[in-house]
Amino acid sequence: MKRIYFDYAATSPLDARVLAAMQPYLTEAYGNPSSLHHFGQTARRAVMCAREQAAALIGAAPDELFFTSGGTESDNWALCGIAAERRAAGCGAHIVISAIEHAAVRETCRYLETLGFSITSVPVDYEGMVDPDDIEAALGTDTALVSVMTANNEVGTIQPIAEIGARLHARGIPFHTDAVQAAGHIPLDVNALQVDALSFSAHKFCGPKGIGALYLRRGTKCAPLLHGGAQERDYRAGTENVAAIVGCGRAAEIALAEMDAEERRIRSEADFLRSRLSAIDGIVFHGAQKHCLAGILNFGTQALAQDSLLIRLDLMGFAVSAGSACSAGAAHPSHVLCAMHLSEEEARRAIRVSIGRFTEHADVEEFADTMTQIASER
User: Fold this and answer.
1) Percentages helix, strand, coil for the chain, rounded to the nearest 5?
2) What's the confidence (pLDDT) of residue 8?
3) Of these four, 39, 238, 343, 350, which has the most CB atoms within 10 Å of its CB?
């Protein structure tokens, strides 16, 4: 049975071009970048090149980019590191986030609460959009940091990051954005967005798992993540994962070069699928229709339970999800959909279909036909 992958928002397949770039650093070019001999300097040059490639994806300078193990680590580092520095400088211990942040941000904030920080969660509307006025209204004289995701991983809604950034910049409040779901899929420029910190992860744009990056604007005070050697300019000690870093850089280079064409192709496929699914009685779509990532469709059915539909689709060869992979198996409904004013019952009936680089039109047609068939059997 042919298996069709519709869960790109959880992770994406490794591009063969990325694997080819990584291969030498898994075999013959195995030096430690901190070593002074030929092997070490070969690895060091590869890391420098990858840093330039990854920084270009978000319009940053290479020396503003720090490699991490992925989005979760980057989010943890940004929030904990900046918050600690701000409190130490007497700037307060209050953090503002949106109600639909990924668990990597939400759980980090819960940890920070145990250290004496206070957290304000700003609501979103029915499309999952946060209002910049609400962010501004949540600010206080003790606000140390604001974190709002660039695009939501469950419904694809893209937030007004530039407007929020401009308002926070005027007040001198550091601004972090979790761009894990957005990076590699939509144009990002840290200067235009006026963010001070940005997180992303390579496996969301056909790079390897276990590698990501944190952008820190020059002058942004952030405590080091790991202590030890001088790697990542004394901010993150530990021997670099050279092959993964090279993969991250190559994946970023490919994503940037092909972004416009891919966005048009994926949006066309998503529009086709939305049109086909809209013809099925009882299908309701969740999230923004205009300001959204091209490849994510979140919808619910009135007559089909989420778990039974996911299992049936898997048995028929389709990999889809109920939302964030990090929340798979959770007993509670999606916090994102509930924040968007859906009832718990509605949230429990939603599934997410996400398409990407290697999705073919025939796959989309087959899925639409299958959903139509399942609906007709009710």
Assistant:
1) 45, 15, 40
2) 98
3) 350
What single string gives the DSSP state of each residue in 200-231?
Answer: EEGGGGTS-TT-EEEEE-TT-----SB-SS-G
Q: Is 326 among the residues known to form the active site?
A: yes
The rounded distance, in Å, linking the Cα atoms of 188 and 186 is: 6
What is the maximal distance between C-alpha atoms in the chain?
A: 68
Q: What is the DSSP letter of 284?
A: E
Per residue in 233-285, pLDDT tens? 989 989 999 999 999 999 999 999 999 999 999 999 999 999 999 999 889 99
Task: In whole angstroms, give the CA distance from residue 377 to residue 267.
Answer: 29
| CA–CA separation, 70 and 213 (whole Å) | 6
Taking a C-beta distance cutoff of 8 angstroms, is the pair 122, 100 a contact? no
From 206, 222, 326, 338, the catalytic residue: 326
Dist. CA 2–CA 338, nearest whole Å: 35
Rounded to an integer, the average pLDDT of 312-336 is 79
Residues 239 and 47: beta-carbon distance below 8 Å: no
DSSP structural state of residue 287: S
